[in-house]
Amino acid sequence: MAVTIKDIAKKTGKSITTVSRALHGYNDVSPETREMVERVAKEMGYTPNLLAQRLQKQRTDTIGFILPTFGPRFSDPFFSEFLAGIGSSATKYGYDILVSTQPPGEKELEVYRKKVTGRQVDGFVLVRTRCQDPRINFLRESGVPFVAFGRTEGELDYPFVDEDGADGMFQLTKHLLERGHRRIAYITPPMALMFARDRWQGVKRALDEAGVSLPDAYLVTGELTQRSGREAARRLLSLPTPPTAIIAGNDLMALGAMSAIQERGLVVGEDIAVAGFDDIPMSEASHPPLTTVHQPIYEIGQMLTEMLIKIIRNQPLESQQILLRPQLIIRQSCGE
Amino acid sequence: MAVTIKDIAKKTGKSITTVSRALHGYNDVSPETREMVERVAKEMGYTPNLLAQRLQKQRTDTIGFILPTFGPRFSDPFFSEFLAGIGSSATKYGYDILVSTQPPGEKELEVYRKKVTGRQVDGFVLVRTRCQDPRINFLRESGVPFVAFGRTEGELDYPFVDEDGADGMFQLTKHLLERGHRRIAYITPPMALMFARDRWQGVKRALDEAGVSLPDAYLVTGELTQRSGREAARRLLSLPTPPTAIIAGNDLMALGAMSAIQERGLVVGEDIAVAGFDDIPMSEASHPPLTTVHQPIYEIGQMLTEMLIKIIRNQPLESQQILLRPQLIIRQSCGE
DNA sequence: ATTGACAGCCAAAACGTTTTGGACTATAAT
DNA sequence: ATTATAGTCCAAAACGTTTTGGCTGTCAAT
Is residue B69 a contact partner of residue A88, using CB atoms and an 8 Å limit? Predict the structure, then answer.
């Protein structure tokens, strides 16, 4: 069926060794032979069998990326942008991306292990790090190259890119405090996620410094989706003394919160302020446009991939831990 | 480094043949041997080298999916949901997904070709079909298994799943007509995309049947993003006689259009109606919630993947072409 | 005439599996 | 005592590459 190096050897009358070497620019084949081999290869439509190549070379030129899907309707714009970033760098360096979907939990590590020992990938891009992240321990111990988007608690001896969520939320919360808000509520992602804890630290610090307290009822947990943001906001709005400002741990939940406010007939930005984190494209187009903290997802995907490839290739890394300074994006959802 | 079948053979004192057969449930190995092999394999942490396995078996258990990325900020919630659907079925049947990013154009087919002849994938899931789609011609001719989300012009002799966009838009447009709208504008995706043409047919037919004409200036093209939807809507609103209703070819553009309307101080659903297509999660949470046509992206991803796997395995397909009947979702963006 | 250097070529091993086509032993049937 | 049968086992080939460690012939220098 598919044409192999053997077919070319037969056609050209050379050995398969010579064909292989001719195609790879070795200098122990004569120019005429090389030219002939190349011509025949092209004529016959030869493409190397990557499986065989990889088996022999003991590397896969493939990067693993495991999507932490929760439930069926999984539609986080975050991931398509991130994946596009990974893809752009991967393509640039001739790598493929092997994607699996696997919810966090029991079988998770097994998937990672299988991909590694099964020689399917050369390394991993991790995403959504948890405070105690078994994946990181596992990969660190087994010596598999990996990079992470996000940090963990404990020792940070692995390569990562992260945005300083504490600083971002600090800026954002301060912005709200400066605008006079004192009853500020926070919708947090599950605290097991490292960035959730991080962002919460930022909120907390800003409030503490201003001497503002946040009652227990003002701290609610959402699942990162619009739907859960809306439900969380509904609860907040039903409190005896509802907040005058709601900060959400990500934009999707902030947008959900906006819709909960609007369904009550209140005006976001006037009656109540809303802010998010991520600056997904949607946030610019919402009504009112959402005040948020920018995160360059696409670029982070690119950076991580390039770092990973360097690690795989044993090339030096100029900086193996990158903490990005967040940028506050002020729009109208917290008032004019 | 990694433990191979050979190591197990050495340890157990059996041949590699026997080890292989023991691990695969052949009945020509004694129960004791089988048990011993299995125990040792587990002890040593054996995982088969998938590269070797695949090279030998001449199949890859991998599905190819090539993301048609346009430009750097590529953040379409559509794709993460679709990918999650593919992933769920792929995992179920033990397949992996190989993802590449590649904009439509010159080098596109080369990527497909390389993945096939390089034995990286057993088949493809195609997405965003174009009216004249070179990918389909190529795959059809080379006999590679594939399934497509969407149809093309010309002969439809390949397996696909699609939602009847013409019917969906027909229903939607009729809904607007029934509500008294006569000045209806349409923001279309690029007409080279099959679903764009399809949906436009539906709009057109509804208008024709009602004897309503759509002036040239009311038909504008967007690039499927919020940003382009907003820009298109701005143009429409600046017309001497602006439309009273705007239909967008997808939800993202509809949401962009809503923001253009709101930035003019107009009220969506009262001053002007807006409708979209897709029913992405965002549409439910927008303000006002968007009237749209539902598309079960996740399920479509699943269906396509299962179809593809059946084709790869030469199993019969109960129906190889599926056209889904769309469901109109009426919310508030076209009035109460 | 020998030696050395070099250009051009190739057989065979290796990567880790699965499968083919037996071989061997013990027991049962003739 | 021979022949079948069944139960275990295995050597070798195959999948398509790359790499190792040669070999052969030519030419120039000694």
Answer: yes
Report the C-alpha gap between A126 and A103 in whole angstroms.
13
Q: What is the DSSP letter of B291?
A: B
- Contact (Cβ atoms closer than 8 angstroms) between residue A75 and residue A224: no
Domain that holds residue B237: 165-295
Cβ atoms A63, A95 nearer than 8 A = yes
Which residue of chain A is at minimal alpha-carbon distance from B49? A118
The residue written with tokens 């190549």 in the block is A53
**Tokens 């050495």 belong to which residue?**
B10
Question: Which nucleotide has the least CA–C1' distance to B8?
Answer: C16
Kindly indicate the confidence band of residue A285, based on its pLDDT and cuts at 50, 70 and 90. confident
- A199 and A278 inside one domain: yes
Assess contact for B69 and B101: CB atoms under 8 A: yes
What is the 8-class DSSP label of residue A313? T
Percentage of chain B exceeding pLDDT 70:
98
- Tens of pLDDT, residue by residue over B222-234, are 999 999 999 999 9
Residue B332 lies in a domain: no
- Does residue B259 belong to the interface with chain A, where contact is any CB pair within 8 Å? yes
Domain-located, residue B54: no
pLDDT-derived band at B192 (thresholds 50, 70, 90) equals very high
Q: What is the pLDDT of residues B143-185, one digit of tens each?
A: 999 999 999 999 999 999 999 999 999 999 999 999 999 999 9
A14 CA – D21 C1', rounded, Å: 19
- Is residue A53 included in any domain, yes or no? no
Residue that is written with structure tokens 């269906």 in the block:
B303
* Assigned domain for A336 exists: no
B318 in the same domain as B269: no
Q: Which amino acid is at B154?
A: G
- What's the Å distance between residue B52 CA and nucleotide D8 C1'? 26
Residue B301 shares a structural domain with residue B322? yes
Nearest to A262 among B99, B256, B287 (CB): B287
The 8-class DSSP code of residue A201 comes to H
Instruction: For residue B55, give how far its alpha carbon lies from the nearest alpha carbon of chain A (Å).
Output: 6
Q: Is A227 on the interface with B (CB under 8 A)?
A: yes
A281–B73 CB contact, under 8 Å: yes
A176: confidence class by pLDDT, cuts 50, 70, 90:
very high
Q: What is the DSSP letter of A268?
A: B
For residue A316, which phi and psi values (nearest 5 degrees)? -70, 145
Number of structural domains found in chain A: 3
Q: Are residues B243 and B309 in the same domain?
A: no
Closest residue on chain A to B117 (Cα): A47
Q: Mark whether A19 and A92 lie in a shared domain.
A: no
Strand D bases, protein C-beta under 7 A? 7-12, 14-22
CATH number for the domain that contains residue B125: 3.40.50.2300
Q: Are residues A290 and A142 in the same domain?
A: no
Backbone φ, ψ for residue B108 (5° rounding): -55, -55
d(CA B203, CA A195): 45
Residues A184 and A288 in one domain: yes
Whether residue A84 and residue B69 make contact (CB cut-off 8 A), yes or no, is yes
Question: For the domain that residue A35 is a member of, what is the CATH number?
Answer: 1.10.260.40
Residues A121/A136, Cβ–Cβ less than 8 Å: no
- Same domain, yes or no: A157 and A275: no
User: Among chain B residues 53 through 112, which have CB within 7 angstroms of nucleic chain D?
Assistant: 55-56, 58
CB contact under 8 A, A84 and B72: yes
Pairing of strands A184-188, A327-329: unpaired
